């Protein structure tokens, strides 16, 4: 019967873990670049979609990529915020979204989700601030552009709202909310300089 040298076994395992962790750290920038390239490709294909069905599939793919933060903790907190908001627990949702932003301030989807919460609360100035942050981080976030149009329309800025809807439609040409908003505002804005 062989005696296992536990200390030696532990050192061997620890070296393996360290090497694996080091390799993962080296791979993370490449994974992030792949996600960025993948998102760019999906958004380009979405802007050229030939049918509503194709656009629906591509928009869901884009949303899934918008939702990826690269951190399991951040993703979990965001999911909890969304769940709390759906349950009507708006203060708790706000806490979760705030935590996500504190942990990863360059995550556009967190600002977009918090803007939705701001709108539900009637805090339009806060929503505009969060949408601005989301769009500065991810200018082609078509849902944030549509939401921006909705907020601007509620605040009585039809020209700016129309522009936001048009920008959303340039990325997602079959977006129903942006299409409805642009159609609603077109008679009031056509012929005037944006």
Can you give a write-up of this model?
- This protein has helices spanning 6-47, 52-67, 72-86, 90-103, 108-121, 124-137, 142-154, 158-171, 176-189.
- It is mainly alpha-helical and 194 residues long.
- The chain has one domain (6-189): Serine Threonine Protein Phosphatase 5, Tetratricopeptide repeat.
- The longest helix has 42 residues, at 6-47.
- The protein is globular and about 80 Å long.
- The chain starts with 5 loop residues before the first helix and ends in a 5-residue tail after the last helix.
Content-based structural category:
mainly alpha
The count of domains is 1
Report strand %: under 5%
Query: H/E order of the elements?
Result: HHHHHHHHH
Query: Biggest β-sheet, characterized?
Result: none
Overall geometry comes to globular
The CATH architecture category equals: Alpha Horseshoe
Tell me the distance between the termini: 84 Å
Which oligomeric state applies? single chain
- Number of DSSP helices? 9
- Broad CATH class: Mainly Alpha
Find the count of extended strands (DSSP E, 2+ residues): 0
